[in-house]
Specification:
The protein is of the alpha/beta class and 284 residues long. Strands 3-2-1-4-5 form a 5-stranded mixed β-sheet, sandwiched between helices.
C-alpha cells in the first residue's frame, strides 16, 4: 500500500520525499515497480483498458474528470488521481475549448427586451429557462449557420437548425422544434442576444403565441449569454467548425447533438450526469 501511494503521488512530489514520509527506501520502491506481475501493474493495465474505452466512447473528448465519472457510473472503484495518471501514461488527453467568436447582427432601431435572465444561468426544473443563439460553421462553399436553443436546467439542446443564411427563418425553425418537442407551459423565459433574427416581428410573435417571455442581453455584452457561448465553444472543440459540405455538417451535427451530447455526454455542471439522465431524475 505504501508503494502504491508513492506511485500515485510521484507526479506531485519527489520520490525521495515520499519515501521518507512513508518510511521506505527509494531502492525498495523502484524494486517494487520493476516486478513484472506487481498487483498495481495488473490493476493499472485493467484501468488503462477501461480508460481507453471510456475515452473512445466520448469521441476522444473527455479529460480525466469525465473519464473518472464514466468509470464510476460503470461501478468501477478508482480515484480521480489514478485515472489522471493512467491517462498521462497512455498519452490520452481531453480536448480544450477555444475562444468563441460572436456572430450577432443587430438591426438599428429594433426594440430589445429587458435582460430578465440577468446572468443567472440556473433553473429549478425543465422548461423554466431557455437560452438561444446562432453561430457559424465553415464549408468549402461558404458559411453554414447553426441556431441552437438550450434548456438551462439540464443543458439539453431542445431545438436546433442550420441554414446557409442567418435570418429569422433559421431562428424560427430552431424555436419551432423546441416548442414542438417540449410543449412548455406559459411563462417560460427565453433569453437571446439582440440579433436582428430575435428582435424581428416574426420571432417575437412566435414567442407570444407560445406564451414564452422574452429576455435579451445588453447590447455588445457577450457575458449576458455566456452559457450559450460556452456551448458553442464546446461544440467546435469536440466536433469541428469545418465540414466537407452542408449535408456533411447536418449529419455530424445530428450525431453529436442528438446521439452524443444530449444522451451520452457527461456535464460537469450536472454532477457529471448526462442531460437526459438529469431530466429523467427530475421527472422520476
Amino acid at each position: 500500500m505504501r508503494f502504491a501511494f508513492i506511485a500515485e503521488e510521484k507526479t506531485q512530489w519527489p520520490v525521495a520525499v515520499l519515501c521518507r514520509a512513508m518510511k521506505v527506501s527509494p531502492s525498495g520502491f523502484y524494486a517494487w515497480k520493476r516486478r513484472p506481475e506487481a498487483a498495481h501493474s495488473a490493476a493499472d493495465r485493467r484501468i488503462g483498458v477501461l480508460v481507453q474505452e471510456a475515452h473512445r466512447r466520448s469521441r476522444a473528448t473527455y479529460g480525466s474528470p469525465r473519464v473518472h465519472a464514466e468509470l464510476r457510473a460503470q461501478g468501477v472503484r478508482v480515484s480521480r488521481k489514478r485515472v489522471a495518471r493512467v491517462m498521462r501514461e497512455l498519452g490520452i488527453r481531453g480536448r480544450s475549448r477555444r475562444r468563441f467568436v460572436r456572430t450577432t447582427e443587430s438591426k438599428a432601431g429594433a426594440e430589445a427586451a429587458e435582460n430578465l435572465l440577468d446572468r443567472d444561468f440556473t433553473a429549478t426544473k425543465p422548461n423554466e429557462r431557455w437560452v438561444g443563439d446562432v453561430t457559424y460553421l465553415r464549408t468549402p462553399h461558404g458559411f453554414l449557420f447553426l441556431a441552437v436553443i438550450l434548456d438551462l436546467y439540464s443543458r439539453m439542446v431542445v431545438g436546433w437548425a442550420t441554414s446557409a443564411v442567418n435570418d429569422r427563418r433559421l431562428a424560427l425553425k430552431a424555436l419551432d422544434q423546441a416548442v414542438r418537442r417540449r410543449r412548455p407551459d406559459v411563462g417560460l423565459l427565453h433569453h437571446t442576444d439582440q440579433g436582428s433574427t430575435y428582435t424581428s416581428e416574426d420571432y417575437q410573435r412566435a414567442l407570444q403565441k407560445a406564451g414564452i417571455t422574452c429576455s435579451m442581453s445588453r447590447r455588445g455584452n457577450c457575458l449576458d449569454n455566456a452559457a450559450m457561448e460556452t456551448w458553442f465553444a464546446t461544440l467546435k472543440c469536440e466536433l469541428s467548425e469545418w465540414f466537407e459540405s452542408a449535408s456533411d455538417a447536418q449529419r455530424q451535427l445530428f450525431d453529436y447533438i442528438e446521439v452524443f451530447y444530449n444522451r451520452g455526454r457527461r456535464h460537469s455542471a450536472l454532477g457529471y450526469a448526462t442531460p437526459a439522465e438529469y431530466e429523467r431524475a427530475a421527472y422520476a
